[in-house]
Write a structure and sequence with these properties.
Largest sheet of chain B: 2 strands, antiparallel
CATH superfamily of the largest domain in chain A: Nitrogenase molybdenum iron protein domain
Order of helices and strands of chain A: HEEEHEHEHEHEHHEEHEEHEHHHEHHH
CATH class of chain B: Mainly Alpha
Strand content of chain A: 15-25%
Strand order of the largest sheet of chain B: 1-2
Largest interface: A-B, 47 and 42 residues
Radius of gyration of chain B: 21 Å
Structural class of chain A: alpha/beta
Shape of chain A: globular
Radius of gyration of chain A: 22 Å
Number of domains of chain B: 1
Shape of chain B: globular
Number of strands of chain A: 13
CATH topology of the largest domain in chain A: Rossmann fold
CATH architecture of the largest domain in chain A: 3-Layer(aba) Sandwich
Helix content of chain B: over 70%
Oligomer: heterodimer
CATH superfamily of chain B: ABC transporter involved in vitamin B12 uptake, BtuC
Largest sheet of chain A: 6 strands, mixed
């Protein structure tokens, strides 16, 4: 079955190569996160899977060529409003993805389930896996990969350089911080327990970029923790997600009502920083600026005199 | 198959006779198969099949045919086989359990078989990047069905060891021990879920809602030994289950080796449930709804209940899967959500009727 299909697709490719009027210059071959060489002949109808992937594609000016996105594509907001949605990125449907008629699939490594991803890789539509790394180098790599696949390399160079410059500026500012603030990222409050960002999360990466010490780095991923564990972590500041600004007061009161949180230095001083979730955690091109905003909130005096707090 | 259609025990009271039910179930399954092959998010219809087959045979085809071939042969066909197996296996498990326990509410979920299978599958998924990696590489698509089957068998063996007295299985004790075992397995599953991070947790949650979207040929082929085993074992249970309707002592006097039959039922149920859980996650209500429907329509004779349940179960899951993939296309609803949405109200109706008739 497999070799037969291979033979058919080879024959198809041969016919296409001989008969196709598409100029060869439009074709590129990229090596994706899985190490596969993928040939992209037509980047006119793009399916983006993954919030960071969608954000980068829009930033590169390819937004009008996107035909569909997944439900994690929260930024820019028009993405989910104007484009088809193929559902949650970890619960894709093979036929659903094929049905949107994309000529190029750009998908985060996190996309799943694995069998569906395997089927999609076997289809004739190029499927490019975008790496999922929460580091400055990872972001630049993502931007360059997507730029090459979508034929927007000039734009990609510019955005990658901006990002690199942004990260360099952050590093320079970080070097002025003598005592990193002890920070805790809180994803949400559920039944009196808080869900905190441990290591291997974009929250941890952004806290680190902003020059904070993540007190939850002992755990991996987003974890629920109880009151005692929060007291033990003793954060000086809590960073949370803003849903809408109308909810700020409610979210803050809910968080500060927790006994464990109250007993921390952050709780005692009511020191909570709320930021937009997609902006803070998206790990797209806006991450240097998000980390910069967070740093400003964590170290108000850092800009002017280089002095601490 | 050695199933033969015979008049139902009290045929006159039933809306359909045995023949009627089996014929109807065959038609329903045939329709569900056609629907499942011809409907999907892409507009590809069955009309493309001759084109796809000729391209497959001659080896020549354009990109459009290649796309149709992918959709029909690589996506819909394995999904159809998986769905039919899951539906038939779950409905058969329910029918066998209800026959063995002589309890209309029995279900593999009740005596811990499903919970054991789920625990093993969840543990395998959670460990698949670490401890179980060599196993994943060695066994590929067979790992999960085998693990879930193993979990079901272990749960069953523990159950029998606890509940058996002097080599006999008392149904009451078996039920009580099963409920406790199910609670134990569920709590261990909860422990694994608690230890998972946010992303693994979402994967586990989605898996537990049930889906056929991961259907593939290797998965479908991995089910073949299970399907074959069931097809061989189930027809042999008909006489025993029918004898058991009268009571265990009566069945014994009819010359039925009751304990041996119970063991066959238990292993067959563990295999069917384990394999179904492994490929589709948790698909609820099929095991309890379908056998009831068959009994209501055609009477309690297991010569009808077993094959009828298998056919109707397959038809039900295939139809529910068509809804799951069409309602929110190009995304997909979890299959377990659809079967429970369809099944739970129907079940409430059945319970009401049952209460009324007592």
């Amino acid at each position: 079955m497999c070799s037969l299909r291979l033979a058919i697709s080879l024959a198809g490719a041969l016919v296409a190569a001989i008969a196709s009027p598409v100029p060869l210059s439009a074709e590129v071959t990229v090596v994706d996160a899985g190490g596969r060489s993928v040939r992209v002949a037509d980047a006119s109808r793009i399916l983006c899977i993954g919030g960071d992937v969608t954000e980068i594609a829009y930033a590169l000016g390819a937004g009008n060529r996107i035909v569909a996105v997944d439900t994690t594509s929260q930024y820019p907001p028009e993405a989910l409003k104007e484009k088809l949605s193929v559902g949650y990125m970890r619960a894709l449907s093979s036929e659903g993805v094929i049905s949107v008629g994309a000529s190029l699939v750009l998908a985060s490594e996190r996309a799943g389930p694995p069998e569906v991803v395997k089927t999609l890789k076997a289809s004739s539509v190029p499927y490019i896996e975008v790496p999922d790394a929460f580091s400055p180098e990872g972001l630049v790599q993502k931007i360059r990969l997507i730029a090459r696949a979508t034929g927007t390399e000039a734009e990609g160079d510019r955005i990658a350089q901006d990002a690199t410059a942004g990260f360099a500026a952050l590093a320079a500012l970080r070097s002025k911080i003598a005592h990193p603030v002890r920070a805790l990222f809180v994803l949400g409050v559920q039944n009196g327990r808080i869900l905190v960002g441990g290591k291997n999360t974009s929250a941890d990466a952004v806290l680190t970029l902003a020059g904070a010490h993540n007190v939850a780095a002992g755990a991996s991923g987003f974890r629920p923790v109880g009151d005692e564990a929060v007291v033990e972590m003793a954060p000086e500041v809590i960073v949370g997600m803003r849903r809408t600004s109308d909810n700020d007061a409610h979210d803050l009161s809910q968080l500060l009502a927790l006994k464990g949180v109250q007993s921390t230095p952050a709780g005692a001083a009511s020191r909570v920083v709320l930021m937009d979730g997609a902006y803070l955690l998206g790990f797209g091109p806006r991450v240097p600026s998000a980390a910069r905003d967070l740093m400003r909130a964590l170290y108000p005096g850092l800009d002017a005199a280089g002095a601490q707090r | 198959m050695s199933f033969t259609a015979v008049p139902a025990v009290r045929g006159s009271e039933r809306p359909l006779g045995a023949r009627g039910l089996l014929a109807g179930a065959c038609v329903a399954l045939a329709l569900a198969v056609l629907l499942s092959l011809s409907v999907g998010a892409t507009g590809v219809s069955l009309a493309a099949l001759p084109r796809v087959l000729s391209a497959l045979i001659t080896g020549a085809g354009d990109p459009a045919t290649a796309r149709e071939q992918l959709v029909l042969l690589e996506i819909r066909l394995p999904r159809l086989l998986l769905g039919a197996f899951v539906g038939a296996a779950l409905a058969l498990s329910g029918a066998m359990m209800q026959g063995m326990f002589r309890n209309p509410l029995a279900d593999p979920g009740l005596i811990g078989v499903s919970s054991g299978a789920v625990l093993a599958a969840v543990a395998t998924i959670a460990a698949s990047n670490g401890l179980a990696l060599p196993l994943v590489q060695a066994l590929g698509p067979y790992l999960l069905p085998l693990a879930a089957f193993g979990g079901g068998v272990i749960a069953t063996v523990v159950l029998v060891a606890v509940a058996a007295r002097h080599g006999e299985l008392a149904v009451g004790t078996l039920l009580l021990a099963g409920v406790a075992l199910a609670a134990l397995a569920s709590s261990l599953t909860g422990l694994i879920a608690y230890a998972s991070d946010d992303r693994e947790l979402r994967d586990l949650t989605l898996w537990m809602l049930g889906s056929l979207s991961g259907a593939s040929w290797p998965k479908a082929l991995a089910l073949a030994p299970f399907a074959l085993g069931l097809a061989l074992a189930v027809p042999r249970l008909v006489r025993g289950l029918n004898g058991l309707v009268l009571g265990e002592a009566e069945a014994f006097h009819l010359g039925i080796d009751v304990d041996r039959m119970k063991r066959v039922v238990i292993v067959a149920t563990a295999a069917a449930t384990g394999a179904a859980v492994a490929v589709s996650g948790i698909v609820g209500f099929v095991g309890i709804i379908v056998p009831h429907l068959v009994r209501l329509l055609a009477g309690p004779d297991h010569r009808v209940v077993l094959p009828g349940s298998a056919l109707l179960g397959a038809a039900l899951v295939l139809s529910a899967d068509v809804l799951a993939r069409m309602l929110v296309r190009p995304a997909e609803l979890p299959l377990g959500v659809v079967t429970a949405l369809l099944g739970a109200p129907l079940f409430l109706h059945l319970v009401r009727r049952w209460v009324g008739s007592v």
